[in-house]
Amino acid sequence: MSPEAVFAQLRELATTVPNLSETQLNLTEPELLTWLGRLSAAVGAVGDISDTVSLNMSIDRLPTMGRSEAVTNIMIILYRALARAEAKSPSSGRGSFVAAGSPFDALAALSKLFAEATSSIRIVDPYLDEKVLTTFALMASEGVSIELLADAASVKAPLKPAATAWIAQYGTIRPLEARVASARLLHDRLIIIDGQTVWDLSQSIKDFAARSPASASRADSELATMKITAYGAIWQAATPL
C-alpha cells in the first residue's frame, strides 16, 4: 500500500474500534476478526517490525486473562502507527481525524475541504439536513456550485426549506441544486471537489464527530474515478428536492 493508503486505512480503523473490553468478547465475530486482521496488515505496512510482532502477540492474548493489558497495547500501537503513517503520507492526502465531541474541529476539518473548491462541490449523504448549508456551505467561495444529493428514504425535512431560502437569497452568486436519489440507493458519504477529488466521510455531515470519532479520507485516483462516475449517473437520475 502507498503511504497515503496506509494512513487512510489506519485512520478508518481508529474511528471504528470495536469494544475489545467486553466481558463476553466474541472472537468468532466476523466483523471483529476483520478489524483485527486489517489492523495487523496496516501496522505491518507501516514497517515497524517490533510493533507488528507486539501487536500480533497482543491479539493472540485477547482470549486470555491478560486481555486488559493486551487491549491497552493494541490501542497504543494503533495510534503510534497512525502517527508514523501520517508523517509519511503526502500532506495533500492526509485528510482529517476529529475526536468525538469536538464541534469546532469538525467545522474546521470540513470547511477546509469546502474551501478547496474552485468550480463545484457535490455532497453525497443519505441523511442530509439544513446543517450542510447553515454551517458548512458558506465556507465555499462565491461562484462555486453546490450540489446536494440525499436519499429519498432518509433525507431530513428541514433541508428543503433551507435550500429554498438559500436559492432565494444567493441565486447565481452561490449556485445551489439539491436532488434526492431513489430510496435506500445511497450508502457512501462523499464530498467531491471540482469533479476530480473525492473525500470519503466516515459519518454523515449532520452528525460529524458529534458522538464518536470521525474522519475525512481522500480516495485514491482509481477509486475516485469510479465513485465520480457512479454518483454522476445517480445524480442524473435523481429528482429535484
Describe the model.
- The chain has helices at residues 3-15, 30-46, 49-60, 67-88, 103-116, 131-136, 159-170, 221-237, and strands at 96-98, 120-124, 145-151, 176-181, 190-193, 197-201, 214-218, 239-240.
- The chain has 241 residues and is of the alpha+beta class.
- It has two domains: 3-91; 95-240, Endonuclease Chain A (Endonuclease, Chain A, 2-Layer Sandwich).
- The radius of gyration is 20 Å and the shape is elongated.
- It starts with a helix and ends with a strand.
Report the top-level CATH class of the largest domain.
Answer: Alpha Beta
| Broad shape | elongated
Termini Cα gap: 40 Å
Order of secondary-structure elements: HHHHEHEHEHEEEEHE
Query: Rg to the nearest angstrom?
Result: 20 Å
Question: Which blocks of ≥5 consecutive residues have pLDDT under 50?
Answer: none
Please tally the β strands and state the result: 8
* Rounded mean pLDDT score: 88
Task: Give short descriptive properties of this protein.
241 residues, alpha+beta, Endonuclease, Chain A, 2 domains, eight-stranded mixed beta sheet
Helix-strand layout with pairing:
Layout: H1 3-15, H2 30-46, H3 49-60, H4 67-88, E1 96-98, H5 103-116, E2 120-124, H6 131-136, E3 145-151, H7 159-170, E4 176-181, E5 190-193, E6 197-201, E7 214-218, H8 221-237, E8 239-240
Parallel strand pairs: 2-3, 3-4
Antiparallel strand pairs: 1-7, 2-5, 4-8, 5-6, 6-7
Describe this structure in a few short sentences.
The protein has helices spanning 3-15, 30-46, 49-60, 67-88, 103-116, 131-136, 159-170, 221-237; strands at 96-98, 120-124, 145-151, 176-181, 190-193, 197-201, 214-218, 239-240. The protein has 241 residues and is an alpha+beta fold.
